[in-house]
Design a protein that fits this description.
The chain has 16 helices and 13 strands. The protein starts with a helix and ends with a helix. The chain has a domain at 101-122 and 231-409: Rossmann fold. A six-stranded mixed β-sheet has the order 4-5-13-10-11-12, sandwiched between helices. The protein has a four-stranded parallel β-sheet with strand order 8-7-6-9. With 445 residues, the protein is α/β, with parallel strands linked by helices. The protein binds ligand F0G. Ligand F0G is lined by residues 128, 130, 153-157, 224, 255-262, 319-320, 365, 367-368, 395-396.
């Protein structure tokens, strides 16, 4: 492939403050995570951004036919949608993205729908949607000449950052809440070579700590407040639309934790609409776990002026065990812009929905199953119609949290409240003697 193919997609890019009253602008190469003027969140912005929608759709489709490394990435294939770099020299790809749309008739029936499609981000190289953003965050770290990168994580971000940083020759430093992430995720961080600190505090407390330490220790932060991670996660939506031949669904449903993904999906939808790549914006439905649902409470509050953090968030879906989501102002804007909704679901609802997704032969980690539980609740309330066209995003792989699964199927899952969860769709393994007759009798029952 000629070099010229790689030169497409550069744009003037800036960081802009997300606060409507501020909108201060900064160079794309400044190492900042919040607006230095007002403290607001930052996002990448491309002044004068235009495209030829038909030509771009054709180009993106053609790229699927080549074996060039950037084109094999489900993120960088869509680089014109995330044009923050001025050179592609810094890209390290593990061929992230490329995640399937899966029809799930069983899950649709469970929710009371005619049909339901999952976009399964668990098919990513480290098993979660974080890889879409991390390849971009690490590219920016390399561009800035950073040597060390860090994140606070409920597990998936640390697994992803560890992999991409090590692949790029950077030093990954991971901060995780001690005893509160699944073993599969911790194992990944160790195996990918991250310096791993298990801090005796919860996610929100550690994030505040690390934000204060980042400048002092000269480390580049790769949490979802990093605007370049958000750019990468936008491609989940771009790829979804490409796979659907640019026909937007009625709803896109996703779990909400720190709300980076909600911010990314909303930004992607707005931009695709502005660029003329889609004609209407689907509604976003964000689902939280009941014990960690500050965004849902904000949504239900009269004025929606300020988020009240949950001091001690609790859920077995540890990925979304977050009480003080930093990206809430962006997420609120995006849910409102898409005429979306926010809902919360119980531990039992998540566990049962997860087993139903498993029975479709698909499977996911607990946080991801909040989507199906939320859809079922929104369907029952009449918010979602039975014939709606819905894509639910499964954010993480089934194997991330095998302890939870074994607990559910063998009746040993206890919610943080102390409530014992029912194994509604439990599937107990059976211990049998090494005797053909007994085994045959068992299976002939
Ligand atoms: N689903 C999974 C599997 C996650 O790992 C996360 C977040 C979410 C959903 C929520 O996404 O934060 O963008 O609203 N995990 C982060 C982590 C916080 O550290 O891995 P969000």
């Amino acid at each position: 492939m000629g070099q010229s193919q790689y030169n497409q997609g550069f744009m003037p890019a800036e960081l802009v403050c997300f606060e409507p009253k501020c909108r201060a602008r900064f160079a794309i190469t400044e190492v900042i995570y919040n607006c230095p003027r007002c403290g607001g969140l930052l996002e990448a912005d491309y002044p004068g951004w235009k495209c030829d929608p038909a030509a771009l759709k054709r180009l993106w489709r053609q790229r699927r036919l080549t074996n060039a490394p950037l084109e094999e990435s489900g993120v960088w294939r869509y680089r014109e949608a995330i044009p923050f770099l001025d050179s592609y020299d810094h890209i390290v790809t593990l061929k992230e993205g490329n995640t399937p749309l899966l029809e799930a008739p069983g899950a649709a029936a469970y929710a009371g729908l005619d049909r339901l499609t999952f976009k399964h981000q668990g098919f990513n190289p480290t098993g979660s949607f974080k890889d879409n953003g991390m390849t971009c965050g690490v590219a920016q770290a390399l561009r800035l000449g950073m040597r060390r990168v860090a994140c606070v994580s409920t597990g998936n971000t640390s697994a992803s950052m560890a992999a991409y940083a090590s692949a790029a020759g950077l030093v990954p430093v991971v901060f995780i809440p001690h005893g509160n992430i699944s073993f599969g995720k911790l194992a990944q961080a160790l195996e990918y070579g991250a310096r791993t600190l298990q801090v005796e505090a919860n996610f929100d407390q550690i994030l505040a700590l690390v934000r204060a330490l980042a400048a002092r220790l000269g480390i580049y932060l790769l949490n979802s407040i990093n605007p370049f991670r958000i750019e990468g996660q936008k491609t989940i939506i771009v790829e979804m639309m490409d796979q659907r031949d640019w026909n937007p669904p009625d709803w896109i449903v996703l779990p909400g934790g720190n709300l980076g993904n909600t911010s990314a999906f909303g930004k992607a939808l707005r931009e695709l609409r502005q660029l003329g790549l889609i004609e209407r914006v689907p509604r976003l439905a964000v689902i939280q776990a009941e014990g960690a649902a500050p965004f849902c409470e904000l949504w239900r509050s009269a004025d929606r002026a300020a988020l009240h953090a949950v001091a001690h968030p609790e859920t077995l879906a540890t990925a979304i065990k977050i009480g003080d989501p930093v990206s809430w102002p962006k997420a609120l804007y995006e849910v409102l812009s898409s005429r979306g909704v926010v809902e919360k679901v119980s531990e039992q609802e998540i566990a049962d929905a997860k087993a139903q997704i498993g029975r479709c032969g698909i499977g996911c980690e607990p946080a991801s199953a909040a989507t199906l539980a939320g859809i079922r609740k929104l369907r029952a309330a009449g918010v979602i119609a039975a014939d709606a066209d819905i894509v639910a995003v499964l954010t993480g792989n089934l194997l991330k949290d095998p302890d939870y699964i074994y607990g559910y199927h063998t009746g040993g899952l206890t919610a943080p409240s102390g409530e014992k969860l029912r194994s509604t769709y439990g599937n107990q393994p059976v211990v049998v003697p090494n005797e053909a007759e007994r085994i045959a009798a068992l299976l002939e029952e």
